[in-house]
């Protein structure tokens, strides 16, 4: 491998609505060893809770309503996020729905896996654990 070519961990974003934060923490605890294979990023409270309760290191961004969903969408769009787990609460209204829809659209446009429930989260984390090669 040349100096310019490096192997990086894949970047996985973790996001959870308030009604799903306990599910995300439980998921992170149950899948801690698998999640260690990723560089983890997440929105405000979700990243703090996962760090505190599961002991996983995360880069915390803004909270979703304050622009965290948009920050993650930007990383997806510029190739700095490889997959997203967004445990959405489909039974609640969210004032930042336009940001949520934009994030989902950006994942679709850039062909980035997006899990919105625990079953698909398993598929994403277990299926993408291999590192990626980047040329810088």
CATH superfamily: Methylglyoxal synthase-like domain
- Rounded Rg: 14 Å
Beta-strand content estimate: 15-25%
Unreliable sequence segments: 1-6
What does the average pLDDT come to? 89
The helix fraction, in percent, is 40-55%
> Which structural class should the secondary elements be placed in?
alpha/beta
Count of the domains: 1
- Spatial separation of the terminal alpha carbons: 12 Å
How many beta-strand segments?
7
Query: Would you list the SSEs in sequence order as H and E?
Result: EEHHEHEHEHEHE
Number of helices: 6
Q: What characteristics describe this protein?
A:
136 residues, Rossmann fold, globular, alpha/beta, 43% helix, two-stranded antiparallel sheet, 6 helices, 5-stranded parallel beta sheet
Strands, helices and their partners?
Blueprint: E1 5-8, E2 11-16, H1 21-30, H2 32-35, E3 39-42, H3 44-54, E4 58-60, H4 68-77, E5 83-87, H5 97-109, E6 114-115, H6 118-127, E7 132-135
Helix pairs in contact: 1-3, 4-5
